[in-house]
Amino acid sequence: MNNFGGMAVALVGPTASGKSALAHAVALDERGVEILCVDAMTVYRGMDIGTAKPTGVERAEVDYHLIDLVDPSEEFTVAQFQEEARDAATRVWQGGAAVLYVGGTGLYGRAVLDNLEIPGQFPKIRHELESRVVEDLPGLYAELQTIDPLAASRMEASNERRVLRALEVSLGSGRPFSSFGNGLLNYGPVRVVQIGLEVELEELDRRITERFESWMDHGLLQEVQRLARAPGGIGRTARQAVGYRQLLDHVEREVPLEACVRDALTHSRRLARRQRSWFHRDPRIEWFSDPDAARRRLVEVLTSPDGFVRD
Q1: Domains in the chain, ordered, with CATH?
Q2: How many other CB atoms sit within 10 Å of the CB of residue 89?
Q3: Rounded Cα distance, 308 and 144, in Å
Q4: Considering only 106-120, 212-226, 235-249, 284-298, which range has the smallest mean pLDDT?
Q5: How do residues 46-63 score in pLDDT, each as one tens digit?
Q6: What is the mean pLDDT of residues 176-205?
């Protein structure tokens, strides 16, 4: 077994680009490499099929971290994820292994890979805003436009979770929510080498459709039904997961299943495009369209000085 203590590399790209399979193959072949899943939704227990979590067999073959941290009824913030990721990486390095960060959730990746400053929590203000949101989400968005027009311009008026968070931070901290995002607009020195998997949009769309159909065949709808019936149900953040949100319309509101599946596919394609745009803005990412070439570069990083995390 190689000693990779202190070494890390990241594999990024949009959903359905093949990141998970490639990462697993690298960790399986290069003994001493452990995977940290940088994903906003794989932290939730029971949300397995539609988040493309590694299977039980895969977890027996390779060490995975940052999976199944909380129940879907619980809220889990970027700051909490950042802290969990730091702790997990430290444990991996202390064991002499290397960290392979894998994910498509851009903000979570930047928080972990660049040690971004994350705004605090303001529960009292949050509670007050939540009491208003059911009846007046448009009004809350208008308030955000007044307080922090830049933050408002970066989100859809219908995105309840993001509107609430931006208002909570702006009101609680006394400074605009967008001021915490300066790190997102600037790309500093490379702290962890990032390898990106590039896939043409037409192929990506085909994979998304094929994968979702497979998920449905393997019980995604039944998984969503179980989650909806569970004590506490599905919380605000967890129900934002693409695929789950649309199928919940069928489970909770009796929207025809066929329409919900079409909606899920549409939102999955949109998500892939947003992720591609997010990652392509980062000039530090090294892009590969050939998975084998990406794999060689991942191993090269982990066996050279490029793999040392630069703090």
Answers
A1: 8-117+188-199+283-307 (3.40.50.300), 123-182 (1.10.20.140), 201-275 (1.10.287.890)
A2: 22
A3: 41
A4: 106-120
A5: 999 999 999 999 999 999
A6: 91
